[in-house]
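Could you please consider the sequence and fold following this short note?
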Amino acid sequence: MNTIIEKILRELASSGRNFQTPVYIIDQIALEDNIDELYAAFNSRFQRFIFAYSYKTNYATDILRSIHRKGGYAEVVSPMELRHALNQVSEEKIIYNGVIPDNVAKYELAMAGGIVNVENLTELRNINDYARSKGRTVEIGVRVNLDLKGAALSRFGIEMNDENLTEIFKLRNIRVVGIHCHVTKSRDIAFWREKAEQMAVIAKKIEAIRYIDFGGNMYGKMHPDLAAQFHCDIPTFQDYADCIYDVLSRYFHSDEMPTVIVEAGTPIIANAQSLLTSVADIRTIRGKTICVLDAKQLDVSVIGDSGKRMPYTVLNFGEKRVRDAAVYGCTCLEPDVFIESYTGPLNIGDLILFDNIGAYSNVLAPRFIQGVPGAVRYDYHGFTMIKRPDSYQTIFGEYI
């Protein structure tokens, strides 16, 4: 078990039942360790490297402050996220991707020194027209669509065929200085090797390339019980850095190597956030023990929706035990299941901590039946509230 999680558990045990649940616990120590390891791996290979944190994986402002203090850029995909990022960092520390049309803001960010990666020809043309109306030339990156063996067809990005390249080169008020890719479900090293190969070939076709942005989709550190569910070797940050370098170094001398960018969200935050819940009820129905928590299964991340179950630890305060018990969430949905079978100590009022749920949890958690939990930060000084839980006003006050 993570030693920091052990410290959290000890502190929770001393807090007893007075700790308000459900609540997300963000482990700032683990978060910053992840960032340090990412930097160490890629800086060991590349003279010019940028780590950009994917805002969409977790919006907690406290997390963002820690990441930006460590030098991380903001990676955003919408006008809403851009506004949030501008409250945290300067324009030149923002990477703006995404499919939502936002021509003027993307132009202005690029002119202010930010990185903008445009994912379709329509928006690229519109930005070119806007730049022409201003009498300016803007430096832009383009998201490319890659055909990877074993990966599903993606609808995102521009296919780098001769016809599209010719059109891009004809846009006189745009100068393409970077290429970007992001391929869903491509975390294995074999995918990253193929991505690096294809991106290097494309970069060589565009003489002005200054950076190659490999997007996200990386594995990070995780609890062994979760890692076992992937049925593959989990690469380290060093494995990814070595893989990319091995490929790019065949195409670029060290003095001409483009800046390498990775947009890591999940591998930075996933193992640094947990969900603490309380046992609200234990009952027996037709011989089956049913336990009910005060949270809903939808409060955990998208990984939970892919059939994987989060590692958990029970903090026991009583004497009773259960056998082959099913542990459910608090909603009226039958599939609201956290644990299908649990045998061990469990009492009403006990706490259960679900680990490794940091990525996407509090941004995807719905307000269905019960609002989104609050969040606390854990560091060497203990617990600090960093997000209030949903209230009646935050949920229903928006309706007219």
About this structure: The chain is about 30% helix and 25% strand. The two ends are 48 Å apart (CA to CA). The longest strand covers residues 273-285. The chain has a mean pLDDT of 93.
